[in-house]
Write a structure and sequence with these properties.
By secondary structure, the chain is α+β, with helices and mostly antiparallel strands. Helix content is about 50%, strand content about 25%. The protein has 16 helices and 17 strands. It has helices spanning about 1-15, 40-45, 55-60, 60-75, 115-135, 155-160, 165, 170-175, 180-190, 240-260, 265-310, 315-340, 350-360, 385-405, 440, 445-455; strands spanning about 20-25, 30-35, 80-85, 90-100, 105-115, 140, 150, 200-205, 210-225, 225-235, 345, 370-375, 380, 410-420, 425-430, 460-465, 470-475. The protein is flat, with a radius of gyration of 32 Å. Helix 13 (about 350-360) runs parallel beside helix 14 (about 385-405) and helix 14 (about 385-405) runs antiparallel to helix 16 (about 445-455). It folds into three domains: about 1-115, Beta-Lactamase (2-Layer Sandwich), CATH 3.30.450.20; about 135-235, Beta-Lactamase (2-Layer Sandwich); about 345-475, 2-Layer Sandwich (Heat Shock Protein 90).
Amino acid sequence: MDGISDSHFLLQMVGENYPNGSISLIDQNLHFIYTNGSGFKKFGIDPSSFLRKSIFEVLQPEVYTPIKANLPKVLSGESVVHEVSTRNSHFLNAYKPIVNAEGKVEAFILTSQDITEFKRLEAEHVKLKNVIQKSINEIYIFDPETFKIEYVNDAGLKNLKYNFEEVKQKTIFDIKTNIKEETFKSWIKPVLDRQTETIVFETINKRSDGSFYPVEVHLQLVFHEGKSSIFTIVLDISNVKQYEMNIQEKKEELAATIEELNATTEELKEQNDQLLKLLEEKENLFKEIHHRIKNNLQMILSLLYIKSLNTKDPNLINFIQDTKNRILSISLLHEQLLKLKSINKLDINQYFSSLIQNIMASYKEPNKDYKLHFDVERFELSTDKIVYLGLITNEIISNIYKHAYPNQPNGDIFFKCLRNGSRCSFSIGDKGKGKLDFSKASKSYGTQLIQIFSDQLNARLTIDTTNGLFYIIEFEIE
């Protein structure tokens, strides 16, 4: 019994803290000699209650049935691995025979690893893969060095009129025949050098039958399992190009009509009405785009909300809440654009007043009261600047709620945005504990986002910890 004794001693050393599962020593009659591990806590079970008992007394049928079925293999000296499911959980069971000095198997070690989270992630991966495969947009993945095509989704195969095996033999230049290799390399160099995340350009794709169609390409660099690839979303813009041609034809017809009719007052008025109609169509098109973006963002917020209801992991809940607030800052911008005549500028006082109220409401605690000190001039900024400022505001205020006033019933949030000539001074902060470990903070996801968004504004970012913690961002308005 030396083999069992040695195994029992070793298992006792590691068993109590065996992570994410259990480890057991079971004799050939299927009685527990030893068992322990963190997995018992999940089901509220005392592992000592299993000792000297048969697996049939303490385990569920769906658990002991595969153990019994694999017993002949184990007793013959074979190591066995299989999956088992019980109580909405999934486990990976591994059997290791214990052989005595005579070469006889007298017991075996059973390790049971909880793979429930892995199975959930695996299912989500399959779902995401299916979404990409069935996307109405064409999606391509190709090698950044050889330009060999590695993946094309169903929409791409349908439009190109290739099957997957055929397209895998192609390079990107076989379908984008109008682009020379050196030219394409110069286009994607900023992405490969990580100077920019995405590039967008228009070109034409060649089908297998020799026909062509215009496309808009969104290209970025992705990494998976230590390998880099080029990921592209391709939009077929045939209808857009046809619309532009129709508009161009209308403009040419309009110019010819004006010239032929010698620009009389009545004729000019008629042509002016046509131009106003085109402008109205353009504005309506922008309104529709903002409306669709807002609806899509609201749908994503709803999905995140549903996800937050189905998890108890505080880190995942915090991540979902932060992500929801980032999306909310963008959604609010499109909502306000829908209400205005302007399509590229917003009043910052109105926008940030609504945004901060929404952020504070999302973090509201029953026994804690935060006071907002809001000092913002009324002037307009371009939407591309406001979207970065909105995301920065979200990151800083969420940090204030999480870190500025621990164990305090009240707290103050200071928000100021003033115009000084052609420059804007943007300040957010608190008068909380005021300490900031820059070596750690600079590596945090939120701080990196603040720095990235500040860089996008070409702004100067200053962090002041003299009296609390304040972020001061200064940039050119135009």
